[in-house]
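tool_call: predict_structure(chain=1)
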Amino acid sequence: MRATAQRLLRRRLLACRGAQARSTSSTNPGKSEVAGILPVCNIEKRVSLPLCDVVASYNALKGAIDKDLGSLSIWADRGSAEAPGRENLETELRWLVEDALSSDEDRRAVFRGGGSGERQQQGRAVRSRLSLDELGDVWRYRLRERVPIQYILGTAAWYDLELRVGPGVLIPRPETEVLLDYALEALRGGDGALLASGPWLDLGTGSGALAIGVALHGGGGGGGHSVGGAGEPSPKPAQGGGGGALDVTAVDASREALAYVAENVRKYALEDRVRVAQGSWFEALKRGAGGEAGEQAKF
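tool_result:
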C-alpha cells in the first residue's frame, strides 16, 4: 500500500513539475498558429487529460501571471484605465479553463484542486477542448497580444445573455446593462403600452446586446432567463402593448458585426422580433425617398 501511494505521489509531483515547466517555457508559438485554433467555443475536438495535470497547469499559469506580465513589459501602462489588474487576469484565466472543459463537474473538480483524494488516486480524467500545451499557448497569446479574452473565448457574458463576439464587433460593456434596465422600467411604467406600440431602434448595435435584451425581456413571452446583470433575479417581462412582442430593429454599418448580431438573434429564437439592417444610423431604415423601412439584411 505504501509503495503504491509513493508511486502515485511521485507521479503527481512529476506532473506538477512538467506543468510548471510548460508555463514558464520561453517557447513562443506563432501568432497565426494560436489564432488558428480560436475561438475556443468553436473547437469541436475533446481530449482526455489527467485531472492532476489540469490542476497543476492552471495553478502554474495563475502563479506565473506577475512574472509573465513583467517579462512582457505590459505593466508599463498599469496606471492607465485600460491596464488589467491581477485579479481581473485571474478571473480571465478561470474563464478560459471553464470554457475549455466539457462539464460542470470537471470544472468544479479543477477549481477545488483535484476533487476527492480517492478519485484523484484513481487517475480521474477530464475532457477538454484544449491540450495542456494549447491552454498555456492561448493564455500567453492573450497576454502578449492583448487580445480581449472575449475574442479568445468567442463569447461575452452580458446581463443574463451569452453573446457571440469576435474581432470586428465591440464587446458589450457591463455599464450598458443599465440602459436595458431603464428601458424595461419604462415599459413597466404608465406609458408602457404607448412605448411598446412603436418601433424600437438599436443604432450602432454592435453584438446586438440591447436589441436582443429588450426584445427578450420587454414583451410578452420574453424568454426564460432568470438572472439579471447584477446577479439578481430578472424582473418579469415588461407587459407593454397588451403583452405583445416588441418591434425591434438592430442597425450597424459593419456587415461583420451584423453577422454576429444575426447569430445571436437566432440563438435566442428572436427572428420574428428583431430585424437586422445594415447602414449608417437612420439611413439603414430608408428605402429611397419615401423613407420606408428597409428590408431585413441577410446573413
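agent: The chain is about 45% helix and 10% strand. Proceeding to next step.
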